[in-house]
Design a protein that fits this description.
308 residues; alpha/beta; UDP-N-acetylmuramoyl-L-alanine:D-glutamate ligase; 9 helices; nucleotide-binding; Tagatose/fructose_Pkinase; tagatose-6-phosphate kinase activity; ATP binding; transferase
Length: 308
Amino acid sequence: MIYTITLNPAIDLVIITKKLEANTVNRTENFELQPNGKGVNVSFILKKMGIKNMATGIGGGFTLDYITAGLEEKGIKTKFLKVKEPTRINVFTRVLDQNVEYKEVNPGPEVGPEVQDKFLKYLKDTLKADDTLIISGSFSKGIKAEYLVEIAKITAEKDIKLVIDSSSKVVLDTLQYQPYLLKPNDQELASFFDLNEKLDQEKIIELARKLISAGCQNVLVSLGENGAALINKDHAYFGNAPKIQALNTAGAGDTMLGTFIGEKSKAKSDTAALKSAIAAASDTASRSGLTDFKLEKYLKEIQVSEIK
């Protein structure tokens, strides 16, 4: 079984407008409410691929109810612990005449130690050997970054495949527990090593291999309009991204991760999984919602090459 964890879920309000002017009423073209959070998106992607999974996490209020209802409507089982404060709403506004996107991301609810301990107990009691656990995104208020290490320790004790998508440098402290895969973007990869520079292919491989030497098994690096890379101890693969008109980048990285893990669960090769992941992520970035997996036109444009 594949489990996803979202410790700071959200409703995303996606707005499309021709223009956005200060101190005036801006009439929009349309809007969409989307149950969201990085792990939530991964669950939706896996379900679209026909892969059974369970979405878990912590949240609160009517907004969490909207998210869990959206998941369950698609046939995804859920287990979210509830707190008093409501789960957040984020706003993504695409302004057509400027060809820009404004992102307004809010903090999550306060989560106390009792609920945090209860969630760790749930994981200990539920997870079984050979399960996959995907933890993605930021943490709500009150959850320290070190919570990620506690989860990693549980997965190591129970022989679980751990997948992490987090920008926190605490990720480095999980490497002793040999996570199956990390999914940073190129900027996050640089920040793990206190670098503030644009990474070329050689540097991406070098830094990813440092993570691998410390215990990680695979590193999937999203590179935005430049595609993605998959690096492990034996291989370094790079794939280009197809040309698209980006509409809404929220969810593209989650789509990439979910598609890659989904393809690997179907015993696809690393190169095939990487190619599909790039195509699906590109499709998500070109629309207001997640990909519909009609990817033929994108797959034709993507080439995956091994860098020796």
